[in-house]
Amino acid sequence: MSAPDRSRAWNQEACRRAERLARSARWRRGKEVACGDMVSLLESVLEPGDRVCLEGNNQKQADFLAASLAACSPQRVHDLHLVQSVLALPEHMELFEKGIARRLDFSFSGPQSHRLARLVQARAIEIGAIHTYLELFGRYFIDLTPQVCLIAAQAADAAGNLYLGPNTEDTPVIVEATAFKSGLVIAQVNERCDTLPRVDVPADWVDCFVVAPSPNHIEPLFTRDPAHITEIQVLMAMMALKGIYAEYGVERLNHGIGFDTAAIELLLPTYGEQLGLKGRVARHWALNPHPTLIPAIEAGFVERVHSFGSEVGMEAYVAARPDVFFTGPDGSLRSNRAFCQTAGLYACDLFIGSTLQMDLEGNSSTATLGRITGFGGAPNMGSDARGRRHASPPWLKAGRERSGSDRFIRGQKLVVQMVETWQEPHHPTFVERLDAWQLQQDMDMALPPIMIYGDDVSHVVTEEGIANLLLCRTPEERAQAIRGVAGYTPVGRARDRRLVENLRDRGIIRRPEDLGIDVRDATRDLLAARSIKDLVRASGGLYQPPKQFRNW
Amino acid sequence: MTRAPSYREATARHRVAGLLDAGTFVEWVGPGARATSPHLAALGSPVSFDDGVVVGEGRLAGERVLVIAQEGLFNGGAVGEVHGAKIRGAFERACTQPPRAVVFCIDSGGVRLHEANAGLLAISEIMRALFAAQSAGIPVWALVGGSCGAFGGMGIVARLCDAVVMSEEGRLGLSGPEVIETVKGVEEFDARDRALVWRVTGGKIRRTLGEATHLVEDNLVAFREAVVALLAAGQGPVPFTLETLQASQARLEARTAWDAALRDGQSLWDRLGLADAALMETEQFNRRLQEVS
Amino acid sequence: MESFDLELPARAPGAAPGTAALYGVVSSGNLEVLVEAGPSPDRCRFHVETSAHGFTDVWQAVLADFAASHRVGGLSFSIHDAGATPAVVSLRLAQAVQSLEAP
């Protein structure tokens, strides 16, 4: 063994950090930066090729810092490598168009998905990989650690302690990875307070903060107006409750966002109560504070909810229900995307969500031609966790069904895809070949962007019935089970009717009538709330919906 | 557990069935007559067997009433030639075979653009026929609680009625929100701001201003009970006299003295000491409104 | 608009309405169906007018399944469709037949 090389400096990162801070000194007073100096400060600390995390996810956005970064001179700041959850703002795309950033590792691009696809095709952007949230967070600690992070917080005190408010979301994981690897943490805050309601990020992890000219944008992404829930969605929700929740005794779960799952939430206190499910299903949740969950909470179905982020308008309601939600001593929600994703992956027995396309292997995708949307958290929620070891009745039942015998070594998460067979005329949900394959070709990707792998899917619920894929023994049976609930889509009509009837006899396919559900009972009168106003009533006036959802 | 059927979400046929005594409704020019719109057909648009309006007679708390119900989901309840003729005909029938009252479930954005001239004519014919029924001593009661509210010509028609029963969810106005935004600009009126739209045209502000005579919960039972109460009160048409006109005039003149800060329901409720009116349940709102007025 | 007629054998006679009965509403993604007495008790008839073009084969499959699973002999169905999905079509038809059987 040779002696250590005494000539090598082992603190080069810390030295570089000190240099950056020294260069930025003239643009800040202590840690506070004036709005008008933010561009200069960023130009002084950033170096070409830096890995930068510009905080933005599907709700909270560090929008002032994004605009400041986009206003930097591309001569001084260029070729950055962005490592961030979500591309949501036009400024995010501007960074690439101006050459300020060149490389991108991310999870989800919702509203910018068209523009992103165009930039990729024009070779103005290099995509490292499209991740799930947990993967990206994991890589922050391995090979994608930010040198600078630009984050959003609710408030700062003079020392630079930060209060994150109910929308904690990704901030803790970003700050942890950056601050403890000699990176710079720069925050925009909505206000400066003498005393913070609680300290979420200690001042010695924070290098600079700026009071932004306007509060950071938060999208009310998880608000679903019950007025838009259709009878068909009520029918599918009845099937899911009776055929899956009750059947497996699902107590711990996560819901994707959409009207299908909102319908389930609103049916718990009515149809769920009729079925005697209170206390037997849907007790523990990994879920944002969905307004549509209010009636089930009030009816006593829900015991605990841990959240990825918050939801605009739910602040007072959450604060008044601390037994249900995770809250700080100040009363406001404590959310955390990384922990909640972990909870959804390992501690939930069921994920149920919707998709745009599904093939005959059960692979599903929300990718459509000309758009790169990414994944977000659905693949973490919607996958069987191979690292799980603790047992629960639904996990064991699903594992037994998959193995087909009583000698099995592993349980199975219930991963349910809930879709109508047609998205709209000319757009069947069920297809022989996913658009994702074409997108892979067009965008020169390593793999087609599959949201949920078919071998993770346990059940498919459509208006025609439920297909239990766990009970299928061959790929052919699986394909026929999917065709058997694919309705009048070309895929559905190409079913082998005799085989499908056989699957039905074996309980692999169950129609509403097999479940004792009369489709004509599926009316909107079964919803515990039919309007946003009903949700406000159910909350005792505590829920304060944003104005675009109010009609008063 | 199911809830009382929403009036707003019910179709015109369900509203008629829910309002009247069970099994008493007799429809005139029903869907089997296939009196569909020739204009829509010529334009290649879908038609409806009843052209979006149900008319007929039945019993309500035992009394014979005539019912007109517009279907807001079919082309926004808009009035076309056939649709308008059915309504006009119903009022004319009211003159020849007088019922106790005409119950008019208005759910309409006004004239159907596909057949604008015919629709405009139809609305003036409806007004004339409505006046004739009132002159014959038959009260006309408007129910406004559908998704389209009562706008354009049908907003005027609603205000000609002797009583206007609204739910908070109902809306009443002349120009619709989108029209105001287009003409006056988004700074003046943002039609996508639903809260603003309801603060200006919704049931609660209309009740506060006295343009709606009753405010009820959004369910069929509540609307029926309101009509039953009008019947029980022996309510006839509001007399068309110099005194009533002068009273109306005085009320409107008083409004012209309002300052510019009174822009919507909220500013008015603030002044009346009803700051949380928007969030009040209907019953509480009605009680508090009575207390302050 | 696209229109077509279809006549199918019926499993069992249906509850014919005394006067024509209308269910549903013509609005986006929805339809109305008028049910009347048809000429022959062992057949049922359909007349469809739809704003969604190119789906006649899907309609025929939906209507055939409906006729095979409900008592619709001697009934005539006239449909005005504004782009309803097959799921909505099946539901409306089922609701119409149910309402006729238990008004």
Helix content of chain B: 40-55%
The assembly state of the depicted protein chains is heterotrimer
Low-confidence regions of chain B: none
Topology as H/E string of chain B? HEHEEHEHEHEHHHEHHHH
Number of helices of chain C: 2
Give the strand order of the largest sheet of chain B, numbering strands 1, 2, ... along the chain.
1-2-3-4-5-6-7
User: Main sheet of chain C, how many strands, which sense, barrel?
Assistant: 5 strands, mixed
The secondary structure category of chain C is: alpha+beta
Q: Whole-Å distance between the termini of chain B?
A: 39 Å
Look at the structure and give the CATH class of chain C. Answer: Alpha Beta
CATH topology of the domain at 12-172 and 211-237 in chain B: 2-enoyl-CoA Hydratase, Chain A, domain 1
DSSP helical segment count of chain B? 12
Quote the beta fraction of chain B. Answer: 5-15%
Please outline what is shown here.
Chain A is of the alpha/beta class and 552 residues long. Chain A contains 19 helices and 22 strands.
Task: State the main characteristics.
heterotrimer, A: about 550 residues, alpha/beta, Glutaconate Coenzyme A-transferase, 2 domains, ten-stranded mixed β-sheet, about 30% helix, C: about 100 residues, alpha+beta, Ribosomal Protein S5, domain 2, five-stranded mixed β-sheet, 2 helices
Characterise the protein shown here.
The complex is a heterotrimer of chains A (552), B (293) and C (103). In chain A, 31% of the residues lie in helices and 16% in strands. Chain A is built from 19 helices and 22 strands. In chain A, strands 1, 2, 3, 4, 5, 6, 7, 8, 9 and 10 form a 10-stranded mixed β-sheet that branches. An 8-stranded mixed β-sheet of chain A has the order 13-12-11-14-17-20-21-22. Chain A has a two-stranded antiparallel ribbon with strand order 15-16. In chain A, strand 15 and strand 16 form a beta hairpin. Chain A starts with 11 loop residues before the first helix and ends in a 14-residue tail after the last helix. Chain B has 293 residues and is an alpha/beta fold. Chain B has a domain at 12-172 and 211-237: 2-enoyl-CoA Hydratase, Chain A, domain 1 (Alpha-Beta Complex), CATH 3.90.226.10. Chain B has 12 helices and 7 strands. Chain B has helices at residues 12-19, 38-42, 81-96, 116-135, 153-160, 177-184, 194-201, 203-208, 220-232, 242-256, 265-272, 282-292, and strands at 26-28, 53-60, 63-70, 101-106, 140-144, 163-167, 214-216. Chain B has a 7-stranded mixed β-sheet, sandwiched between helices. Chain B is globular. In chain C, strands 1-4-5-3-2 form a 5-stranded mixed β-sheet, covered by helices on one side. Chains A and B meet through helix 9 and helix 19 of A and helix 7 of B.
